[in-house]
From TrEMBL:
It catalyses: ent-copalyl diphosphate = ent-kaur-16-ene + diphosphate. This is ent-kaurene synthase. The keyword Nucleotide-binding does not apply. It comes from Linum tenue. Pfam families: Terpene_synth, Terpene_synth_C. InterPro entries: Isoprenoid_synthase_dom_sf, Terpene_cyclase_plant_C1, Terpene_synth_N, Terpene_synth_N_sf, Terpene_synthase-like, Terpene_synthase_metal-bd, Terpenoid_cyclase/PrenylTrfase. One of its GO terms (biological process) is gibberellin biosynthetic process.
């Protein structure tokens, strides 16, 4: 029979779950019957209006300014080691200001690197690397004897971390750190490391440098060029200089560029190094430039925390990024992470970007940089039909991340807890499954300064991204939306009682689940009417489905269909039973209410169209009831044509479209685009139900897509299941393209998003076998509807 979001599993009795009460303990006196009135009542709680003039909002908006990037003691040390390239001054630093910076910026524990409050305990190897580089720079020029001594004491106290496998490992550490130990010997430094540890590190380095290039020869060459400071005099500098970029740098790395300049005195390298020092006031960052990455990180953070809708600046920054994309800018395309994030955000925001333009940067492919791999994985989920590049990326990144997660080595490029949690979430909740508010809640709880810390050869951070003001805004926004939704849920509970739906003993009462799918996607306060419409139609389609399945006789089913077709009722004599009267009255009242709410927005009466949607649904249900009673198995074409409608998303999604804001003309709702969007989401939902529910429906004697394929013959059950699974993936990709790609004078983007919201809800509800178990769904829904977010002081 026809299905809606709450159809997975068996038909339990009326729920008494306290999370989703049918009868609220107390209905507030001010609680209105109309969602629009409720929204008006709460309009003075609009978060951004209340905070618009506050210093906190202004501080958040500064995140969109020029990138704030931490300086790197490690990279600054390598600039400080560059000698003056003239024979008369070969024993003086070319950048003496860098040596002075090192002297002025030793930390209290004798180390150099990220400030101690920001340094995660897993970053000790990074601190050892930065500290040794600074010691070498001072020793090279005979400076800072006291600071060198303190630095050596830090190395001594933390020497065990050098071989600690649980420590966060900077890129190239196994080549660079032993290389610095060799250089220390040349400078006459006695380092406080065990000789056995030093021998082991040097042996490992020699093995790494002498092994063959393997299948990814280009990746290995670029990797060895990137870690040139660990190779020095045995390096092939002609090979290294092939990786020079238009800005004069090598890999946008000040340390690599400084070492190269020491050996080849390239003027473009020098131009880049001067630009870095001018920008960062006599110090160097770990990577530069990084403006686009920084701004994309801000946008991504706002998205992940659920507050992006409050900042109009996002559109301008994405327009600029898109222009850079179209121009083939090096800052995007020569950095895998930046390219992947740009691709994902541009696509999600409706820009036309091709997967053929990007992603295969040889350096990070060889390094297996975990952040880059994770971002590639997330980008590969924004996939349209016929995109083999993204399919390939999705396949290998999924395997790689799962393997690294199992091995416990996922924390190599970000502090362990942060990156491992992100990897777990990306694998567990892919883009097509993760409802917006579920992701927002997880991300708010996980948000910390660590989120803005990355590691290449050394750690770096964006100080303006680890922003406590933003965290507080996100929590307040979540709690405000939740408080409004709690009032709406009470209002809906009253609606069920008043319409006597609780008196229908055959019917599942799934108010909480229906409302959850609306609240988790249509969460903004101003979308109250859309949430109310979505939920009421979800409840009604569930009850009507039960009525058609087993709650009503064929006479009653036909009576309900005829009543909706004729619309006008002449007294109770038109109803063949009380059940029919209750159902028709509730459906008719909801249709009229939606028509009334939509009138102000659409400036036309859409009641007739909403009724037509319902008539089409009950006719499809009647046809399936006849199939079932006659034990008739339709062809696959017949089944899917009817099944798209009988999955019952029409009343839920199509009615809500009129209530999200933009006007939808009659031409729009009769356009091929509208039809394709509806058929796409309905196909996904129908096939997901049939794929996951094949065993249950087989036991019930209900026809579904799998059983129809088996009836056609020539397939095993496994073949039929795999065929349906492929069809789901194909339809999902096609739907995503329809939703994301903009069309002039087409369906507005915010309306198209409702189709994708419903597709994600279907995928989430059918994530495990035959839909969410009751316990899982209660827990997930409760976190959105019942549990406010409390931040630590």
């Amino acid at each position: 029979m026809f299905v809606c979001l709450t159809m997975a599993g068996s038909h339990p009795p009326i729920s008494s779950n306290p999370v989703f009460p049918l009868v609220p303990a107390a209905i507030p006196a001010k609680c209105r019957e109309s969602g629009s009135l409720l929204t008006a009542e709460l309009s003075n709680t609009n978060l951004l209006q209340n905070c618009q003039d506050s210093t906190r909002i202004q501080r958040i908006k500064k995140m969109f300014d020029e990138a704030q990037l931490s300086v790197s003691a490690y990279d600054t040390a390598w600039l400080a080691m560059v000698p003056t390239p003239t024979s008369s001054m070969e024993d003086s630093p070319f950048f003496p200001q860098c040596a002075r910076w090192i002297q002025d910026n030793q930390l209290s524990d004798g180390s150099w690197g990220l400030p101690l409050p920001r340094r995660d305990p897993s970053l000790t190897k990074d601190a050892l690397s930065s500290t040794l580089a600074c010691i070498l720079a001072l020793q090279r020029w005979g400076l800072g004897e006291e600071q060198v001594t303190k630095g050596l004491q830090f190395l001594d106290c933390n020497s065990a971390s050098v071989t600690d496998q649980k420590q966060h490992v900077p890129i190239g550490f196994d080549i660079i750190f032993p290389g610095m130990i060799d250089y220390a010997k040349d400078l006459g430094l006695n380092l406080p490391f065990k000789s056995t540890d030093v021998d082991a590190m040097l042996t490992k380095r020699n093995v790494e440098l002498t092994r063959g290039f393997g299948r990814n020869a280009e990746g290995r060459r670029s990797y060895l060029a990137y870690v040139s400071e660990g190779i020095q005099h045995s390096q092939d500098w002609d090979m290294v200089m092939k990786y020079q970029r238009q800005n004069g740098s090598l890999f946008n790395s000040p340390s690599t560029t400084a070492v190269a300049f020491s050996h080849v005195q390239d003027p473009d390298c020098l131009r880049y190094l001067y630009a870095v020092l001018d920008k960062f006031e006599n110090a160097a960052p770990a990577i530069y430039p990084l403006d686009i990455r920084s701004r994309l990180s801000v946008i991504d953070t706002l998205d992940r925390l659920g507050v992006a809708r409050h900042f109009n600046e996002i559109k301008m920054l994405l327009d600029q990024t898109y222009q850079c994309w179209l121009q083939g800018g090096e800052e995007i395309f020569l950095d895998t992470t930046t390219c992947a994030v740009a691709f994902r955000l541009l696509r999600v925001y409706g820009y036309d970007v091709s997967s053929e333009d990007c992603f295969f940067d040889s350096l990070e492919g060889y390094l297996k940089d975990k952040t880059a791999v994770l971002e590639l994985h997330k980008a590969s989920q924004i996939i349209y039909p016929e995109e083999p590049i993204l399919e390939e990326i999705s396949s290998w990144t999924t395997k790689f991340l799962k393997q690294e997660f199992r091995n416990g080595s996922i924390y190599v490029d970000q502090p362990g807890e942060s990156i491992s949690t992100k990897v777990h979430d990306a694998l567990t909740y892919p883009y097509h499954v993760d409802l917006d508010r579920l992701g927002h809640r997880r991300n708010i709880h996980q948000y910390s300064d660590i989120d803005s810390t990355w590691t290449l050869k050394t750690s770096y951070c964006f100080p303006n991204i680890g922003n406590k003001d933003l965290l507080k805004l996100a929590a307040e926004d979540f709690n405000l939306c939740q408080s409004i939704q709690q009032k709406e849920l009470k209002q809906l509970g009253r609606w069920i009682i008043e319409n006597k739906l609780d008196k229908l003993s055959f019917a599942r009462q799934k108010l909480g689940y229906c409302y959850f799918s609306a609240a988790a996607t249509l969460y903004a306060p101003e979308l109250s009417d859309a949430r109310i419409s979505w939920t009421k139609n979800g409840v009604l389609t569930t009850v009507v489905d039960d009525f058609f399945d087993f709650g009503g006789s064929m006479e009653e089913i036909v009576n309900l269909v005829q009543l909706l077709e004729t619309w006008e009722v002449d007294g109770s004599t038109d109803f063949c039973s009380e059940q029919v009267e209750i159902l028709f009255t509730a459906i008719r009242g909801t249709i009229l209410e939606i028509g009334g709410m939509a009138l102000a927005r659409q400036e036309r009466d859409v009641t007739g169209h909403v009724n037509d949607i319902w008539v089409e649904l009950v006719k499809a249900g009647l046809k399936e009831a006849e199939w079932s009673r006659n034990k008739w198995v339709p062809t696959m074409e017949e089944y899917m044509k009817n099944g798209l409608v009988s999955f019952a998303l029409g009343p839920i999604v199509l009615s809500a479209l009129y209530l999200v804001g933009p006007k939808l003309s009659e031409e729009m709702v009769s356009s091929p685009e509208y039809k394709n969007l509806y058929e796409g989401v309905s196909t996904c939902g129908r096939l997901l139900n049939d794929w996951r529910g094949v065993q249950r429906e087989s036991e019930q004697g209900t026809v579904n897509a799998v059983s129809v394929l088996l009836h056609e013959g020539g397939r095993t059950l496994d073949d039929a299941m795999e065929e349906v699974k492929r069809a789901i993936e194909r339809e999902r990709k096609q739907l995503l393209r329809l939703v994301l790609l903009e069309k002039e004078k087409g369906i507005p983007n915010c309306c198209k998003q409702l189709f994708w919201n419903m597709a994600k809800a279907c995928h989430l509800f059918y994530l495990n076998d035959d839909g969410y178990t009751n316990e899982e769904m209660v827990s997930v829904a409760k976190s959105i509807l019942d549990e406010p977010i409390h931040l630590s002081p």
